[in-house]
Design goal:
- This protein is an alpha+beta fold.
- The protein has a domain at 80-105 and 113-209.
- The chain is built from 12 helices and 4 strands.
- The protein has helices at residues 2-5, 8-15, 22-25, 30-41, 44-48, 57-78, 89-103, 116-129, 140-151, 157-160, 195-204, 217-222, and strands spanning 80-85, 165-172, 178-185, 208-209.
- Helix 7 (89-103) runs antiparallel to helix 8.
- It is globular.
- Mean pLDDT is 78; it is low at 13-29.
């Protein structure tokens, strides 16, 4: 009797308890899970075999125009585009910065001052930070915090704005009577929270904020308008 109790066969029988059985505990088997996934997702051949229907020219054109409109609205919300008189102090500072960057530009080589966008943005922010008059409607504490942020850039503001500015350009219009400034901070960056303040400062420099970007030639052609 003792041999039967302590035999290896008896020990193996005790370890296979009915409580450990997946089927009795209500746990689905692995094969069941695979079958369920196959039923819900379908095979790769079925997904790849779905038919595609070609759109008409009118539908493609409508989709293109809608895409152009959405891009223009997104740019309007995320950018500050201003038209500045060429004799305004800010316009002159921006033109000087662009000329200085272009002077050191050598095709095929990295520019020692980094990108033109960041160099121009640094010059613009430094110029705005020199304003001694707080724009109306701007909180005093926010204005001081903005000035402090720019002052902390030090002597190399173009390096400090690398992760703060997504785009910045300054170019003359066709008649060379105004400078078009296009500034876009990086979303959710420390600089983005001062977008309204920057816009108010640009207004103080006799800047005129431009609206939504004009549609391109292809969009005008699609709408039947003369280019």
């Amino acid at each position: 009797m003792a041999d039967k109790i302590h035999s290896p066969d008896h020990k193996r029988g005790r370890t296979t308890s009915p409580l450990a059985s997946d089927s009795l505990m209500g746990e689905p088997s692995e094969s069941f899970g695979v079958d369920a996934r196959r039923q819900t997702t379908g095979s790769g051949k079925q997904r790849q075999g779905r038919a595609l229907h070609a759109l008409s020219n009118a539908e493609l054109t409508q989709g293109f125009l809608l895409h152009e409109e959405q891009l223009a609205l997104l740019q309007l919300q995320a950018s500050l585009v201003y038209k500045l008189p060429t004799d305004a102090p800010l316009a002159q500072a921006l033109a000087k910065a662009v000329a200085a960057w272009q002077k050191g530009h050598t095709p095929g080589k990295a520019h020692p001052l980094g990108s033109c966008a960041h160099f121009t943005a640094g010059a613009m922010l430094v110029q705005l930070a020199q304003s001694q008059q707080k724009p109306p409607g701007i909180d005093t504490a926010q204005f001081k915090a903005f000035i402090k942020l720019i002052e902390d850039f030090g002597e190399s503001p173009h390096e400090a704005v690398v992760h703060l500015v997504a785009h910045c350009s300054a170019r003359q219009n066709a008649l060379k009577t105004h400078l078009i400034l296009d500034f876009r901070p990086v979303l959710h960056s420390p600089l983005a929270q001062y977008t309204s303040l920057i816009a108010a400062l640009l207004d103080s420099y006799e800047g005129e904020r431009l609206g939504k970007k004009a549609p391109g030639g292809l969009a005008r052609k699609a709408r039947g308008k003369a280019g």
